[in-house]
Specification:
Length: about 260
């Protein structure tokens, strides 16, 4: 995705992007060395996002509020931490979430960014999690409301965001009947048109949730689209250039 962006802007001779695998115990030692190795920044994924915030000399207000960093920049021996997860979500929505009622499924790291983004976009946010205590803790932290499975009338929400791993394993999906949604507190028949359904899972193929929502006329935002917008924000931070979204999108789809 980033390589395609560099090529599209004609700067691939100066910029490159590669993967570095680090065990948790290596993270604190290796990341401060990256600037000396020629890196200007890094994306950070699980399980390192909290560690990335902790290691940052300077962190944005957004990263501190969410409690994690997924984008680091290296400047003159200092590490700057940013979080583009929330911005990526909001940019992928068809319209701003202000005044809308949103249901967030999950209470992990991805859900934290989603809840923060929706709340700061003036949405009314409710959170469900399989472990109710985690939903309550997250809701209390961000001024949202925790709900039980029995309270999740999915058709009553304008926005539904799946921030769980349900759908990542394609062996659990079906031909559209909704059986793959059983781990979630929603039924396929409850989904409706004029609703936005976001599934953060971006493994290959369409998830059962996305398929069920699309069949019922909802606007579906896939995890890949959110990922592209998250990456575009990182690209802008590192290069100071406007990211070529279409080139990044096409590269992400072909992976």
């Amino acid at each position: 995705m980033h390589g395609a962006a560099f090529e599209a802007l004609g700067i691939d001779g100066e910029w490159s992007y590669g993967a570095i695998e680090l065990a948790p115990e290596e993270f604190g030692r290796r990341v401060p060395e990256l600037e000396a190795d020629g890196y200007v920044g890094a994306n950070v994924t699980v399980p390192h996002k909290r560690a990335a915030l902790a290691i940052s000399d300077d962190a944005s207000e957004v990263a501190r509020a969410i409690g994690a960093s997924n984008t680091l920049s290296f400047r003159e021996g200092r590490i700057h931490g940013e979080n583009t997860d929330a911005a990526g979500l909001l940019a992928s929505l068809p319209e701003p979430p202000g005044g809308k009622r949103a249901l967030v499924l999950g209470a992990g790291g991805a859900a934290r960014a989603v809840v923060w983004g929706l709340k700061n976009g003036d949405a009314e946010v409710e959170i469900w999690n399989r472990t109710a205590e985690r939903a309550e803790e997250l809701a209390l932290h961000f001024g949202a409301r925790a709900v039980t499975a029995g309270e999740c009338e999915v058709g009553a929400y304008d926005i539904v965001v799946n921030a769980t791993s349900v759908g990542m394993d394609r062996s659990t999906t079906t031909d559209g009947g909704g059986a793959g949604l059983k781990p979630l507190p929603i039924a396929a028949d409850g989904l409706r048109a004029n609703q936005v359904v976001v599934d953060l899972v971006y493994a290959s193929g369409e998830t059962e949730l996305a398929r069920a929502a699309r069949e019922r006329g909802a606007t579906v935002v896939g995890g890949l689209e959110v990922l592209v917008h998250q990456g575009a924000e990182s690209f802008r931070i590192w290069t100071g250039l406007d990211p070529p979204l279409e080139a990044m999108r096409e590269a992400a789809k072909s992976t």
